[in-house]
């Protein structure tokens, strides 16, 4: 081998290699790609577009697209990091990768990059439907800020996904992701706007990470102000999910490598 072949790779290069590998791995399973891109778009097409009072009002249509975009991000994170990590752990190649000198950081960072890419891709058909079939509108500045907000919104949910993926087996992780995702999405106002909730449910939902993420995204996309504690609530859940993810990773490492 040449000296170039033996030269150590930088952490950034290793991160991008892992991200590319994981992206190609996902693309090779078409149903995973379809599921990631299709469900939020179908929800937009069947529950927003047919309602003239929603689809024909620019502000309401934009808010509806924003809340479904939030669901797309959260769904992608929980399935990619929850079910995806659990599936990887079941493969013989995973223990080998975790023994390599580069350590876990480049692989984990690559998974995060891959997850953010799929979050952004999940928004493409949703935005297309909103543009073609509704009166939703957004300025270029707000669109750019909204896209920049994607990693911020994704962070707590990818950490929750990691906690689930490292704590549970493949089959259990899929079931838990589904059991966590849909109640949180409904209670957080991602399917129905919180304005139609009873007072007690509206108050309860403000303590949830999904509601905080939804209101922040709508605030940035439309200018409708989020409730005052939205950002602190999201930060608090991020810290909690980070602690759970670290604990789950260390327990998994202790069980499998001691």
Q: Which key terms come to mind for this protein?
A:
disordered N terminus; 258 residues; single chain
What does this structure look like?
- The protein is 79% helix and 0% strand.
- It has 258 residues and is mostly helical.
- It has one domain.
- The chain is globular and about 55 Å long.
- It starts with a helix and ends with a helix.
- 39% of the residues are buried.
Set down the secondary structure blueprint.
Elements: H1 3-6, H2 11-27, H3 30-47, H4 52-55, H5 58-89, H6 93-98, H7 105-133, H8 140-167, H9 170-187, H10 199-205, H11 209-222, H12 230-257
Report the average pLDDT across residues: 86
Q: Assign an overall shape.
A: globular
- pLDDT < 50 stretches: 1-7
Distance between the termini: 34 Å
Count of alpha/pi helices: 12
Order of helices and strands: HHHHHHHHHHHH
Task: Give the proportion of residues in helices.
Answer: over 70%
Structural class: mainly alpha
Instruction: Report the C-alpha radius of gyration, rounded.
Output: 19 Å
Largest pleated sheet: none
- Number of DSSP strand runs: 0
| Strand-residue proportion | under 5%
Overall tally of domains: 1
Subcellular location: Membrane
GO molecular function, one term: ABC-type transporter activity
Main location: membrane
InterPro entries: ABC2_TM, ABC_2_transport, Nod_factor_ABC_transporter
Short note summarizing the structure:
The protein has 258 residues and is an all-alpha fold.
